[in-house]
């Protein structure tokens, strides 16, 4: 039996029925209102349960630190002398001077705060910086500074 052609189109049949079968609330077959929005629209409202089942986490996690992290080991020369006295730093004694190797630290800066009353010999790397005041205190206590080339 041959297929019969519909005499009247569906749209023609629905004339006079105000919403044409698309419902009153959703916006009536216009753009994305019928399906609840595009993409993640409504993910915190009417699609929240669906998003939670999918495994989506809401809210921020942690923070991003602005700028690069520069790890510089900063210490006053007085603190260094105190650490030697207390034995917190491994310093060998040679010719009556405490020998400290700061070339193992990647980047360091020695400041001139505090008192220096023991002679010390500091081995510095290229990246290690030392202030003029710290140099004066080491030299006046009978110490010396050896800078790497």
Helix and strand layout, with pairings?
Layout: H1 10-13, H2 48-54, E1 73-76, H3 77-86, E2 92-94, E3 97-101, E4 108-111, E5 120-124, E6 129-130, H4 132-140, E7 144-147
Question: Can you walk me through this structure?
Answer:
There is one protein chain. With 149 residues, this protein is an alpha/beta fold. The protein has 2 domains: 14-57, no CATH class; 73-147, Ribosomal Protein L15, Chain: K, domain 2, CATH 3.100.10.10. It contains 4 helices and 7 strands, in the order ααβαβββββαβ. It has helices at 10-13, 48-54, 77-86, 132-140, and strands at 73-76, 92-94, 97-101, 108-111, 120-124, 129-130, 144-147. A 4-stranded mixed beta sheet has the order 2-3-5-7, covered by helices on one side. A 3-stranded parallel beta sheet has the order 1-4-6. A hairpin with a 2-residue loop joins β2 (92-94) and β3. It is rod-shaped and about 115 Å long. The N and C termini lie far apart (101 Å). The mean pLDDT is 85.
């Amino acid at each position: 039996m041959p297929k019969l052609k519909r005499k009247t189109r569906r749209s023609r049949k629905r004339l006079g029925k105000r919403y044409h079968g698309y419902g009153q609330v959703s916006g009536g077959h216009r753009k994305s209102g019928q399906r609840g929005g595009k993409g993640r629209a409504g993910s915190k409202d009417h699609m929240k349960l669906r998003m939670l089942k999918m495994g989506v986490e809401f809210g921020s996690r942690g923070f991003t630190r602005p700028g690069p992290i520069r790890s510089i080991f900063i210490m006053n020369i007085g603190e260094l002398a105190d650490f030697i006295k207390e034995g917190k730093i491994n310093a060998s004694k040679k010719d009556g001077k405490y020998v400290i190797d700061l070339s193992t630290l990647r980047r360091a800066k020695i400041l001139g705060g505090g008192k220096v009353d023991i002679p010390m010999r500091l081995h510095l790397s290229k990246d290690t910086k030392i202030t003029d005041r710290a140099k004066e205190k080491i030299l006046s206590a009978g110490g010396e500074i050896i800078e790497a080339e």
